[in-house]
Amino acid sequence: MALKHYKTNGVWPAAIGFITLAATYGGAIGAVLTDQTSAMAIGWTFLSLKGTMLLATLLGIMRRPQLGWKLFRGRYIFDHKHPRRAAVQAFTRFWWELPQLWLGYMVSQWRNIIGQMDRVETIGGVTFAIAEGRNDGVYKGLSLGCYVNMWISDSIEGEFDTFVRYRSSQMLMHEFGHTLDSMRLGWGYLFIVGIPSLLSQMAESSSHGRQHQHKKLYAERWANKHAQRYFGIQMRDLEKDRTENH
Ligand SMILES: [Zn+2]
Questions:
Q1: pLDDT tens across 167-213, in order?
Q2: CA 175 to centroid of ligand 1, rounded, Å
Q3: What is the pTM of this model?
Q4: Rounded distance between C-alpha atoms, residue 112 and residue 2, angstroms
Q5: How far is CA 156 from CA 42, 71, 124, 203, in A?
Q6: Over 90: is that where the pLDDT of 147 sits?
Q7: Centre of ligand 1 from the C-alpha of residue 212, in Å
Q8: pLDDT(29) > 80
Q9: Average pLDDT, integer, range 101-120
Q10: Separation of CA 25 and ligand 1 centre (Å)
Q11: 225 burial class (0-12, 13-18, 19+ CB within 10 angstroms)?
């Protein structure tokens, strides 16, 4: 029964995704054709975001076909193991999460175009664009919509799912956690999570890691909490925070 359930999982989210996407295009074209300036501005904004994504896709696929295609395909992959989550992803991705989706996609496809990305992997409807083997030994992640741009110092071996779950830094799970806030906060994500998180990270690295405040930022704790619930794995930062609270 579980297997049967699993097989039909993808159909509804795909239908919801298709309808939502068609509706946003329809709405945007309709808005452009009105004589109201504000509606026209919204319509043109949507269409130009879509247009630049299409251009990035074409250049990315021309430059490195396999990786470029995998990045593009990531926009239409939802969480097949969790149908309800997949349905929410399909509904929110193309309009509610549009600013961060656009940014995340443009960054990853740009890295592909300039040859600064080695692999593309998808887990739970979230696409990871990864550069491996950085020689500064630093792990970096940028979570935008359903795209996570990562720079890692080692390389991925074996199943990606296993790597994400058991990689000692837990950073990939953490970045995945941010994507749940993107679904929740929509257009507020960049202001509530994205920008504060980036600033706090910059402040920490400018102090050369002497002040470990970044992990305590509300947005970072949210991401860990989401990741912990999703993967069913205890996140170490939360453990640490909890002992500190005692
Ligand atoms: Zn974070």
A1: 777 899 999 999 999 999 999 999 999 999 999 988 888 877 666 67
A2: 6
A3: 0.90
A4: 38
A5: 41, 18, 18, 29
A6: yes
A7: 13
A8: yes
A9: 97
A10: 32
A11: middle
What tokens were used for 98? 């549009």
Q: Mean pLDDT, to the nearest integer, of 122-132?
A: 96
pLDDT band at 134 (very low <50, low <70, confident <90, very high): confident
Q: What is the pLDDT of residues 208-240, one digit of tens each?
A: 766 667 888 999 999 999 999 999 998 886 666
Q: How far is the CA of 35 from the centre of ligand 1 (A)?
A: 43
Mean pLDDT over the full length of the chain: 90
User: Residue ranges per domain, the chain?
Assistant: 2-245
114 C-alpha to ligand 1 centroid (Å): 25
- Token pair in block for residue 124: 């739970």
Examine the pLDDT at 115 and tell me if it is beyond 70.
Answer: yes
Q: Ligand 1: distance of its center to the CA of 148 in Å?
A: 11
CA angle 152, 156, 158 (to 5 degrees): 160
